[in-house]
Amino acid sequence: MNKDFPIPDNELQRLAALKRYNILDTLPDNAFDDATKLVSYICGVPIAHISFIDENRQWFKSEIGIGISEVPREITFCRYTILDTEMVEINDTHLNERFKDDPNVTGGFNVRFYAGVPLTTPDGYNIGTLCAVDHIVKKLDENQKNALSIVAKHVIAQLELSTKNIELKEQRKIAEKAVLARDSFLANMSHEIRTPLNAIIGFTDLLAQTELDEMQRDYIESVQIAGENLLLIVNDILDLSKIESGNLAIESEPFNIKKTLKHVYNLLKVKVQNDVEFDLFLDADLPDMIIGDQGRLNQILVNLIGNSLKFTSEGAVTVSVKKTEETDDTYSLKFSVKDTGIGIPKNKLKTIFERFTQGEESTTRTFGGTGLGLSIVKQLIELQKSEIHVKSELNRGSEFYFTLTYKKNTTVSLSLKSTSQNDLGKLKILLCEDNILNQKLAKSVINNFGFDLDIANNGEEGIELLSKNTYDLVLMDLQMPVKDGYQTTEFIRNELKSTIPIVAMTAHSLVGEQERCYKVGMNAYVPKPFKQAVLLKAIKTVMDTDAVLTKKRTVDLSFLEEMACGDENFKKDMIEIFLEKIPEQDAELQEAFKNEDHETVKKVAHNMKSSLDIFLLEDLSNCAAILEQEASAGIFTTESIDKIEILHCGIIEVVKVLKELY
């Protein structure tokens, strides 16, 4: 290595250590600037700096009295300091043989005094210097020398901390991407599993409605039970994924608590073994109507009671519900599921609610199940701001109990139309669906309802049929070739200007999909495998002209109004800029995403996020933030596709709302 300056013996390792910190050519940093000011103050000098030395230059991370960002390595004092392990102090450069004729001594910075401490990494490499320089002769006392050494250690500690933080951020990104990848994998797998499962369950239900002999009916019932069990397993996995990603919301709707409990009891009593007594005890003070999430209560109780029945071969399983507290607005209800089953060992009680954990290693094989049920139960109860408790004794039985608070129902209950029969007349329905089995199933079910059905194999065919014929509603699969369900719906709403009710039907379960369906203009959502009653209810709901068919977005202008301080022109200008720029940025983002241009996606998503935050569009801002993160990491996933579509649909809706306002 032929250089005009001395080279440390460990130069290659030293340069590698410097590179590891990614400090060269970075922006100013308060922590380093404060350290430089401290050196200037402690030593009473006009020039101080923190610098790093690479192959050819000395680069100043922070400096006082220098005014430039770097100098060639061969003209620096510090090229010698990094060869040392201790502080280098030159009290009078005019008397120093090495430096007395140096251009920065005879002119330049007029260096008369120099003190430099090597910045040494924990593994012993001198990557830079901390220096104090003066135009006059000077000598540091011991306190000043000690202080310089301490500040030098602080600089290295700051570098180490920054590096660790960067590593942690990278690890966090990797972990987040792993979670996104897992969720996307689960969602895609659920689609692949649910599509054939939809046909199996649907055709089995239809077959069960035909004339069968006793043996055939027994076989059909076995297939139905197996199908339902498989569906429960798929739902368990998806529910856990949604809970962990924070996308499972607790509903708040009026329901009859007594009817719900009796329904669960009747549903599960078929599972009771011969030597087991199964009882349901309801408190006499239990209210009829409450407001909360009926579906999630069903899920909790079916899991807990199902477990008790599964693990109890003799004795009793007792479910009791009592009112424990009442206020002007709420009821607190305590639920208990008690059994005389196999019980849980004491050392397992703390882990019983962890996923894939059961009381005994053998229970999964002996009794079946995913090992997810209790984990989901615990999290569903915690989402309702409560907790579940368990008491158990091995071979004596267990009791699971929890208390949930529900709002009182103050509205007058209305008699609901029956959804089990068709009272809509002769509807003409268009089905957009590419799977032949699902087409046959839907045709049979829809014909059983007494409706007429036309079938399109993809969105393009669906649009063509809609243009030629008159239909009462559309059943729309989301995943289709040529044009998918989202693109088809957008075309129907924006190009055909049609308000025909559209019901989404899908085996896909990506997080946020239901919301996305509403945003593009669909009116209802039926997951596959569908129950006939659920599909008919959705059809009745969208055909009810008195019902609100779409969820319209509202735009919160409170932050903008706060910034405007009463200036309506400012507010109007901001909205006009948003209306002009956001659609352009959305188009640029979509194009960059299509071309896998990570840098442009990162930049545009970041800019869009700032604009969306001003209008408090938190859901869209979160989509932009995820896209920015994924672009930074240089990898797009199926979650990215989902987010970019939600963002696009949301922007169309927001622009429409703002144009109506102004």
TrEMBL record:
Membrane topology label: Multi-pass membrane protein
Residue numbers carrying 4-aspartylphosphate: D477
Coiled coil: none
Keyword Nucleotide-binding: yes
Domain of life: Bacteria
Pfam families: HATPase_c, HisKA, Hpt, Response_reg
Keyword entries, A-Z: ATP-binding, Cell membrane, Kinase, Membrane, Nucleotide-binding, Phosphoprotein, Transferase, Transmembrane, Transmembrane helix, Two-component regulatory system
Residues in HPt domain copies: 567-662
Predominant location category: membrane
Catalytically driven reaction(s): ATP + protein L-histidine = ADP + protein N-phospho-L-histidine
Compartments (UniProt record): Cell membrane
SMART domains per the UniProt record, alphabetical: GAF (SM00065), HATPase_c (SM00387), HisKA (SM00388), REC (SM00448)
SUPFAM superfamilies associated with the record: ATPase domain of HSP90 chaperone/DNA topoisomerase II/histidine kinase, CheY-like, GAF domain-like, Histidine-containing phosphotransfer domain, HPT domain, Homodimeric domain of signal transducing histidine kinase
Residues covered by the Response regulatory domain: 428-543
EC number from the UniProt entry: 2.7.13.3
InterPro entries associated with the record: CheY-like_superfamily, GAF, GAF-like_dom_sf, HATPase_C_sf, HATPase_dom, His_kinase_dom, HisK_dim/P_dom, HisK_dim/P_sf
Leader peptide range in chain numbering: none
The keyword Cell membrane belongs to this UniProt entry's keyword annotation: yes
Species of provenance: Flavobacterium endoglycinae
Record-annotated Histidine kinase domain positions: 188-408
Residues where Phosphohistidine is found: H606
The protein, known as: histidine kinase
